[in-house]
Amino acid sequence: MDDLYELTLPRDTVFGEGSLECLGRRASKLGRSALLVIGRGSVRRSGALDKAMKLLKGSGIRVTLYEGVEPDPSIQTVDEGSKVCRRESCDLVIGLGGGSVMDAAKMMAILAKNPGSAREYQMGERAIEQPGLPYIAIPTTSGTGSEGNRVSVLTNKEERIKKSVAHPYMVPHLAIVDPSLTLSLPPKLTAMTGIDALSHAIESYVSRRAQPFTEGIGLRAIKLIGENLPRAVEKGDDISARGSLAMASYLAGIALNAGAGAAHMLAHPLGALFGIAHGEAIALVLCEVMRRNLDYATEKFADIAMALGENTSGLSARSAAELAVDAVSRLCQRIGLTRRLRDFHLKEEDFSEILKGVEKSTSHLKETNPCPITEELLLEILKASM
Fold first, then answer.
1. Of 374, 372, 170, 341, the residue nearest 269 (C-alpha)
2. Cα–Cα distances in Å, from 186 out to 69, 203, 341?
3. What is this structure's pTM?
4. What is the pLDDT of residues 108-158, one digit of tens each?
5. pLDDT tens, 49-74?
6. Nearest C-alpha neighbor of 149 from the set 164, 132, 168, 135
7. Cβ atoms within 10 Å, residue 14
């Protein structure tokens, strides 16, 4: 083969119901003083925090708790956490929570060993030069795949953007993926995080940087989500569905080695400028993005339709590809993600600001989206999503 592929993969992963039990034993091999990063209360209410603390302390690990990471974590939150990490002489960082917590924690681990602020790395003013502290990711949602990738998406309130920092040093040293930690996730959050994982799988599968490895696991993730997301939304205690979604999220996160596309180009500024939750922002634009990409990855969209359970027998590749859009649209309706941009009080006058946000934060995704990206195309997608 003449193609040159580049992959950044997770170092160690423990997957399965009850896998959190290995936390103390595995963490003790990485450090003796942990910064444990959590969100604003859900892991306390579920009992996951108490269990993690008990396991860590039982293995002789001193724990410093950093609590309060917000959705779409800010660079200020990350800077503050990294200062606590250094002040307490932590030699290990653990992110226990959803994608926002894991993204924040992995950047804190980097800043503990690299000079400067999160903003400087986000805006390209500094480059990551040294490995960070050992980092353990423990997801409590099935969506971002942060436990399996090298990306940290942070919010810059001054610039009013969401923009990622990415580097191989940011891949977790250990991911503990315990589906039982997602059982308490409410239906709406299950739906939003699940559609985010689906978008990762779809956009990476059709990406212009797709490769055999990412294609294989991306397609498997699409199939798992199509079969199990409605079940998990409708019956949250279905551990089989939760386990399949946890695996799909993890696989889709790794598939992002191939990059995302126009759905993420638009979802980030929609979140940063208008406070729309990331999964919901994805649901608002994903089908319209898929439609514009059909002619540029027709056979792959036909594959996606089959993975989502559509009967494509006897159809042309184009007709089969169109069924992929129909399948995603029906899935969004079934799980309750039916709102349009107008429901968030957006007006067409807001579109110019969204396009400015794209240029500031996600323009690099033009390189991976199948269809050539123009300002006119993005406006067309936004108008169709109203």
1. 341
2. 19, 26, 23
3. 0.96
4. 999 999 999 999 999 999 999 999 999 999 999 999 999 999 999 999 999
5. 999 999 999 999 999 999 999 999 99
6. 168
7. 17
Report d(CA 285, CA 386) in Å as an integer: 9
**Of 61, 112, 68, 117, residue with least CA distance to 89:** 112
Per DSSP, 121 falls in state H
Helix (H) or strand (E) holding 191: helix 187-206
**What are the residues whose beta carbons fall under 8 Å from the beta carbon of 260, sequence distance 6 or more?**
199, 200, 203, 204, 207, 365, 368
Q: Cα dist. 357→125, 162, 269, 273, 352 in Å?
A: 19, 8, 5, 8, 9
Amino acid at 42: S
* Cα gap 53→41, rounded to integer Å: 15
Separation CA 55–CA 61 (nearest Å): 9
Supply the mean pLDDT for the chain: 96
Cβ pair 248, 144 in contact under 8 A: no
Two structure tokens written together for 282:
């994805």
Q: What residue type is 16 in one-letter code?
A: G
Q: How far is 138 from 75, CA to CA, in rounded Å?
A: 21
**Burial of 28 (C-beta count, 10 Å sphere; 0-12/13-18/19+):** middle
Total length of the chain: 386
